[in-house]
Structures are given as structure tokens and as C-alpha cells.
Amino acid sequence: MGVYLAEGGHAVQQLTSSFSGEWGGPAQFLDPTRAFVSHIRGGLGAKETGVDLEFYRLCAGTATGCSVSRTTVITIPGVYPTVVTSIVVFPTRGLP
Question: Does the pLDDT at position 78 exceed 70?
Fold first, then answer.
């Protein structure tokens, strides 16, 4: 599992399905190099749980010296167990 981009007919992993203390949830691509990803923080017995919705700029094969960057858009506090089943993105003007 993870977030992949197709490069030259091959899938190249951009993000893993988990980070330290976080579990990746659904992702929604905005275009070939930008995506929203939900991360579920915490778990059973954790002091803090919730969901971070993050905006990622990914690295296409033509981008030299590129590194994946992420910005947290919103943090939604929650309680264990928290589950995200889908992300829906509506078109809008002025998206970064």
C-alpha cells in the first residue's frame, strides 16, 4: 500500500502507507503530482487520536532534485477507533 506515480510504465512509490505513529488512509489525486492524503494518528491507549488531512506535492520522474513535501491542511480530533473511508475533492479556483 502507499501512493504511487506511474513513470515510464512502472509504478514508483512516493509515500508509504504508514509514518511513525500514523497510519495512511485514503488519498485523492488533484493532478499527476498533487494529492490529499488522510493520516490517522494514535491508536488504542494513545493520549491523542484524530485525523490529519494533508496536501502533498509529489515528484514526477522529470523533476530533478525534487523531494516530496507535505502541508497539514486540517487536523480533526477524534477518539479511537477512527476510520476514514474516502476523500472527496471538489473543484475550486485558487488551489495551490
Answer: yes
